[in-house]
Amino acid sequence: MASFDQTAPRTGRSWGIGCLLAAVLLIALGIGAFLRLVEIGVSLFGAGGIGRVVVIWISLIGGAVAFAIWAGVGRGAVRAAALRWLAALPLPAMLAFTALIPSAESQWIALAQLGVSVLYALAVTLFVRRPVQWGWTPVAVSTGLLAGLPWLAIGAPGSWLDVAVALLQGAVVGWAGGQLLAWQPPQSWQSASVPTGVWLAEGAALGLLLLILSRALGPNSAPLLFLFAAPAGGWLWLALGRQAGLNAAAPLSASFGLFYFGLPLAFTDPDALVTLLLFSSFPEGFHLALLAAIGQALLALLVTPLALFVTDRRVHAAGAGLAAVAGLALLIGGGRAAPAGDRVFVVLREQADVSALATIADYDQRRVAVYRRLTAHAATTQADLRVALDQLGVRYTPFYLVNALEVEADLPLRLWLQSRPEVAVVMPAPHLRPLPFSPLPATGDQPPPDEPPWNVTMIGAPEAWALGARGAGIIIGQADSGVELEHPELSDAYAGRTANGVEHAYHWLDPWTGATAPYDLGGHGTHTLATALGNTVGVAPDAQWIGCVNLARNLGNAPRYLDCMQFLFAPYPPAGDPLRDGDPTRGAHVFNNSWGCPQDLEGCAPDALQPAVAALRAAGVFVVASAGNDGPACSSLNAPLAIYDDVLTVGAVDADGQLAPFSSVGPVQSDGSGRVKPDLVAPGVDILSAYPNQSYARADGTSMAGPHVAGAVALLWSANPALIGNITETERILRETARPYTAADGERCGAGNVAGAGILDVAAAVRRAISENR
Question: Has keyword Transit peptide (predicted)?
Fold first, then answer.
C-alpha cells in the first residue's frame, strides 16, 4: 500500500486546478481531432507517410512549447502534469517515423513500434531510477479486462505474433507511463485524502498523458481510435494507483497498458483501418473500431469506482476470471476466436514466356496453349518449394498467371522464404479479419432510367447499336466487389443462365468467402458491370458476363486479384484446381478491372502482376484497367494494373469532356518506365448505373470510366469477329477514332497528353471496325 502524506491543498483552489486541467484536456482533444483529420486528408491527397510524420511533428512541437511554458509558470499538480507531458513527447516523436513503412506491412510496423517503445521505456526507467516493487496487480487485470470487453465483442485477433506484439507493446507503453508517474507523482497517490477537484484534475491530466503516449501508436488510423478511448482512461489509471504505491507504479501501469493499449492493437484489424476504408459504406473497419473505442471509454469510467473502493484482491481475481470468460464467449460466439494468420505473396524468379504463342491463329487453341504452358511451368518450378512447405506443415496456394504462391506466414517464415534461391520477392498480402456480423448490401437512391444515360450517348453507343453492334457473342469478365445477379440490368446477360436453368459452375467465383452464387454487398461491382453491358445503362447490352469477387469490403491483394484473373481466363468448377481443371475456351474475352493494387495499402510491388497481363495479352484477352483516383498531380497513376503497357488504361472525363480532377495521370514513375498513361479517357463523373437491391445510384471515379471501354471492345468484336483476340489492332482502332482532347492550362505532364489518345468514340470505332472487315 502507498505511504500517504496527510497534507492536501485547499478545496477552493483544488476546483480551480481541476477546471484548468479539464479545460486543457478538452482543448487537447479538439486540437487532436483536427490534426488527426488533417493526417487523413494528407494521406488521401497522396502525401502518405511523410505527410503524416510532418503533421505529427508539428503537433508535438506545438505541444512542447505549450507544456514548457506550463512547467515554467505552474505550481504543484499543474507543474507536475506539464513535466510528465513534456517527458512523454519523445515517444510519439519517434513512433511517428514508423508511418514511413507501407501500411500493408503491419507486422513490420508493429515490431518497429515495439522496438522504439522499449528503447523509450528503458531510457525513462534509467532516468527515474526508482526502485521497482514487483507483484501481480489483479485490480488492473479485472478492470482492464472489463474496460476491454468491447474489443473482444467487435474485434478479431491477428496471428499469434500479432497478438503477442500488440499486448507487449501496450505493456511497454504502460510501463513507460508508470515511470513518468513515479518521477512526478500525482497528489492522489501521495495523500490519503485529496479534494475532489484535485482528483478530477489529475485524472484529466493523466487522460492527456495517455493521449500523448498514443499520439502515433499503432498502424494506419489507430491513433484516431485512442483519441476517443484515452481521455477516460486517465481516471481509471489514477484510481488503480491508489492501491499500489509509487514503487509499484511501473508494473501496475504495465498491466493497465497491456489492456488499455494492448487489447485495441491486438483485436483491431490494421488492414481495415486504411484511410480509404474510413469512407467505406460498410459498417466495419474503422467504424466498428470506433464503436469499440467509445465503449472502452464508457466502461473505463464505469469501472473506475471498482478500482477506487474495492480493495479485496480476491474479488478482483474473480472479476478478472469472469471478464475473461465473457470475452472468450464473445469471441467464440462470433466465430472470430481463431487467430487470422498473416499471408504473403511469394513470386518466383523464373516466369514463363508465352509471347511466341500469340501467333497461333485459332483463338481457342491459342488460349489453351497459353494455359498449358503456364500451368506446366508453374508445376515444375514450384515443386521444390511446395515440398519444403509441405514438410513444414505450412498452407499455401499456387498460381500460374504469375509464377507465385500465397503462403500463410508470419515474419520468421517470410524471411526464410525470401532467402530461398528460387524466390524473387516476397510481398505482403493483406487479408481482412472476420466481422461479428454480415454486412447488409448497399442500396442506391436514384430512380430507374427510361433511356440510356448521358454517358452512354456521349460516346456514341446508340449509333453503334444502330449499326448492328450490341456485343452479342462476347463475354466480359468482371472482377470486383461482386455482382447482383437478379438486377434487371444484368440478370439476362449472365453467362450461367442457360435453357436448363442457372448454372454457376464456370461462371462465378468468390475466393474470399466461397459464396456459390453471385452477390454484391458494396455495389461497386454491380455499378461498373452494368455500365459495360446493362440493358439500359450499358454500352454493350447484348454481351454476357461471368464474375468473380476480388475486393472484400473494398480491400484486395495480389493473390485475390490473381484468383479472379485466372478464373476469368480459364474457369473451373467448384472445388476444382485452377492449375488442372481450368477451361480457357469458356473464359471471358474482355476483362474489366475497376481497381488498383497500391503497394502501400495492398502490398503489390509495381511489377507484381505484370506477368499475368503479358500472358493474357498473348492469349488474346483484352484487359481494361481504370487509371485510379489519385489525380490531378502528374505521375499519380502509380498502381497495377493501370501502369502496364499490356493493358489499356482509362481516365475519367465529365459531361463537358473535361478531365476529372481526381483522374490519375502519368507519366508512370512507380516502375521507372516514364510510360505515358492513360491510353484513353471516358465518362467517369456522375455516372448513373445499377446498384444492389435492384436499385440505381450515381458515382464518380475512373472505376466508372473503364467499363465504357470494356463495353466498347465488346461492340467492336461483335461488329467484326476477325478482331477477336487481336489486341494490337483493337487498340489501334480505339486510339485512331478517339475524339481529340485539348489539355487545359496546367494539365500537361511532360510530353504526354493527360488524356492519352483522347475521348472514347465507340460509334467511330465500330464504323472503322466494320469498314476494315469488308
Answer: no
